[in-house]
Amino acid sequence: MTTKTADTLTMTHKSTNVRSRMTTPLWLRLGFSTAGYLAPELTAAVAERLFFRTRRTAARAGERDVLQSATAVSIAGMKAWTWGEGPTVLLVHGWNGRASQLGSVVTPLVAQGYRVVGFDAFGHGDSPGSSMSIPELASCIRQVADELGGVYGVIAHSMGGAATTLALSEGLEIERAVFISPPSDPNEFLDIFSAAIGISGGVRTRVKRRVEHRLGIRIDDLRANVLAPSMRIPLLVIHDRDDKEVPVDAGQSIAGAWPNAELIITEGLGHQRILRAENVTNVAVSFIDAVQHLKIAA
Asked: From residue 284, how far is each of 53, 224, 274 by CA, in Å?
C-alpha cells in the first residue's frame, strides 16, 4: 500500500463542518429506551425497519447544474444520467446521497474520453423507494453495470465504496476503482444507530439478528476490510483525517488489506466537502485514466 498525505498534495482546507455522526430527538431516544425494556422483540422489529429507512436531502446550490448537460435515462428502474462517450466510469453515491454529489468528476472524465454514468439508488434522490442496504446497493451496481454492457471504472463515495467491494466479490468486473471516505465495518453503523435511538445492548443484538435474517448474510461478512484481500483490481482510497461520519482509520484499514491499493489522506475536508475539492477530483480522475495513458504511450 502506498500512502500519501494532504501536505504532499496540498489538499489541506480548514473546515468548519463538525457534523455529528447521528443525532435524534430526546423523545425518540426515551421512547425506544422505555419500549425496549417493556417489549424488546417488538422494539427490535421497529428499530430494524428504521435502520434501513433512507432520508432524502435537498441538493446543494449548483449541484444539479451538472445534470443539465446529461442525458437522463432509466436503468434497472432507477433514475440515471449519462455524459460523453467511451469506456464507462460509474459514479456510486453513499447513504442518503445522490448521483449529483459526484458531479465534479464528470467534466474532466468526459474530456479524457470516458462515458460517465451516475444513478440514484432506490430510496435516494429521484429514484423510487424508501429503504436501502449495502447488499441491495451492491445489487443495484451490478444491475446497472449489466444494463450498460460493462463498466471500466468506479468512483464511489462512503457506503458506495462498501457496496462496490461487495459487488466485486459477487462478480462485478471493472478495471480500476476510487473510493472516497469508505466505511469498513457495518457493525459501526449499527452501533451508532443503536446509541442514537437509545436501545439497550440486548435490543441491539435482536436488531442485528433481524437485519442479518432480512439480508440473508452475516454483517461481519460485509466488512470491506475482510473482503479486501481477495480483490485484484487497483484501488485508490481518499479519506479525510477530519471526517466526522466515517473515521479515517476505516479507509486506512481497507487500503491496508487491499492488494495494490493506494491511500491518500487529506485534512480539513470532512465527509462531504471532499467531493468538491478540486485536487481530490484531479487525483481521482488521473487514477482512473492512468492505464489509458499508458496504452496510448505504448
From this structure: 30, 20, 11
Tens digits of residue pLDDT in 133-182: 999 999 999 999 999 999 999 999 999 999 999 999 999 999 999 999 99
Burial class (CB in 10 A: 0-12, 13-18, 19+), 61: exposed
Q: 110: burial class by Cβ within 10 Å (0-12, 13-18, 19+)?
A: middle
User: For the chain, how many structural domains are there in total?
Assistant: 1
Residue 290: pLDDT band by 50, 70, 90 thresholds?
confident
- What Å distances lie between residue 104 and 146, 175, 184, 245, CA to CA? 25, 21, 25, 21
Quote the CA–CA distance of 133 and 135 in Å, as a whole number: 6
Question: Is 13's pLDDT higher than 80?
Answer: no
C-alpha cell at 262: 493506494
Grid coordinates 439497550 are at which residue? 200
Q: Which domain holds residue 290?
A: 2-54+61-297
What is the reported pTM?
0.91
CATH of the domain at 178: 3.40.50.1820
Residues of the chain with pLDDT > 70: what percent? 90
Burial call 177-209: b when 16+ CB within 10 Å, e when fewer: bbbbbbbbbbeebbeebbebbbbeeebbebbbe
